[in-house]
Amino acid sequence: MRALRARFLPRPRQWQCEGGPRRATEERGGGGVEAAARSLWWWFVGGRRWFSAAEMESTLKGIRGSDAPCVLDMDDAATVAGGVGDTYGEDCATEDQLVTPWTVSVASGYNLMRDPRYNKGLAFTEKERETHYLRGLLPPAIVSQELQERKIMNNIRQYQVPLQRYMAMMDLQERNERLFYKLLIDNVEELLPIVYTPTVGEACQKYGSIFSRPQGLYISLKEKGKILEVLKNWPERSIQVIVVTDGERILGLGDLGCQGMGIPVGKLALYTALGGVRPSACLPITLDVGTNNEQLLNDEFYIGMRQRRATGQEYADFLQEFMTAVKQNYGEKVLIQFEDFANHNAFELLTRYGTTHLVFNDDIQGTASVVLAGLIAAQKLLGGTLSEHTYLFLGAGEAGTGIAELIALEISRQTKAPIEECRKKVWLVDSKGLIVSSRKESLQHFKKPWAHEHETVGNLLDAVKAIKPTVLIGTSGKGQTFTQDVIEAISSFNERPIILALSNPTSQSECTAEQAYTWSKGRAVFATGSPFDPVEYDGKIHVPGQANNAYIFPGFGLGVVMSGAIRVHDDMLLAASEALAQQVSEENFEKGLIYPPFSNIRKISAHIAAKVAAKAYELGLASRRPRPKDLVKYAESCMYSPVYRNYR
Description:
Elements: H1 2-7, E1 12-13, E2 26-27, H2 32-46, H3 59-64, H4 109-113, H5 126-131, H6 145-158, H7 162-175, H8 177-186, H9 188-195, H10 199-205, H11 207-210, E3 217-220, H12 227-232, E4 241-245, H13 262-273, E5 282-288, H14 294-297, H15 312-330, E6 335-338, H16 343-353, E7 359-361, H17 362-382, E8 391-394, H18 398-415, H19 419-423, E9 426-430, E10 433-434, H20 460-467, E11 471-474, H21 484-492, E12 498-501, H22 513-519, E13 525-528, E14 535-537, E15 540-542, E16 545-546, H23 553-563, H24 570-581, H25 586-590, H26 601-619, H27 631-638
Parallel strand pairs: 3-5, 4-5, 4-6, 6-7, 8-9, 8-11, 11-12, 12-13, 13-16
Antiparallel strand pairs: 1-2, 9-10, 14-15
């Protein structure tokens, strides 16, 4: 009888705006007025046109054309009714509130232990074991979550190979979701390089061999015409963030096809651990359009389609169907993060969908925001302003041009100078040498704004000598390109050169921390994309900073979600950069750091989210009303907690 009563108990329903504060749970049939009010508000937003005087010119605006819409222009054809609502009360309940472990029915016994959302292992209490038919299915010992955490960390540290640690963490995520995030949050500096770069790169290369259980949606060309149906196969309806890749440019490793799924999975794990977006609201997606990697096509363990990549109109139509289906299924306010698309597609997708969807490209915009934050912080360390520097990039792809544009935008904002003038402070070197005006006709569209008047220069060393930059930034994806000659050259005319070797993974970094400090005689202000150990030079310990996108995108995503933003604007990225730079303390500066430690990342993410949300409200892009009085506290209240819940 107890089992029957449990199965027919009314399912709890919870109403909550996306990322909003927790509200009291209502039984089925309640919340009608609130639901109607929210529907009315969404109808109002869907048909409204927003205007702002804060519009800035940008590279994407130039690509679209002077008459093209910007992200502040709301077109009725590009907006739909709908949105995201909470489904499960347990996602938003306070830690001391009893929740019901719902699957199809109330989960009990064997099934409860195999549902990663509800499984607590040996932490199930005596009462829970009795109520949910767990007697005999577990050893008699009852342990705390803290003891479980210590045991798992001890086990992980026994592995000598990073990929083994990655596989252990992924296995834990599949078994016990809350323990996985508790472990990651409490040991973020130790585990971040395991679940994210650099180890995730190796995991993607070997994904076919280590694949055991799917962790997201795989949408291939076979599903063309049925993508909406595929999205509906995902069990969660309350999706707030999607990270999607086509696997063509995974980190600096190239085309990994369907095996690029490790990137969306890893990114979304950080959205939850670092930004507090609840895991049930996150959806990793891989678009399998084939691969041009011959090694994978001939690999018997490859898990994707064995055909060469779709291109041209076939690819464009497939992406159009996907973007339309996502909005139709999840509504206007689901954040779609493009991840590791090749340059030629990344800019095209951001340009095409930036004014019709809530989209964000971490490789272009996230990298730019975190690098700009480091440069803003460096001015506090060295003195001066951004406009006083000359910037030289090695690499003119997604990351390089994205960073360059955001630097120019910030200089324009600070000096009130036209964006075209500010771009002249920034120079880029690609595979053919310095980008100059004489090359303009042969350049890709996203490189053309950086073609300045100068004689032809064929390599990085000669460019350093000719341009005499104060800031050298590497986004080339090629290791050991900041040679001793290059670093000695920039150090010869700068007392404290700023050197950022950003390419991932570690093997692709333009130089190591030891090389940068040794060749600059300990004078470089240095940061990298992947972690490096501290370096001792001339009796002083130098701690390299890490310009890791994980500083930005989790907090940025939380800010977008909690404000109900319906578009991403450049000013929101600038706000995120400034918020991150403000978190660097004097103690950090004394160590030569231009980024704060990851140990405070949730606090950092809350401040970034608050600044991003504030800017969304200022620009008229936020749909959540009323605006919370204290956005930092509100951001903290929205964050997912991995602490075990007590079950009825």
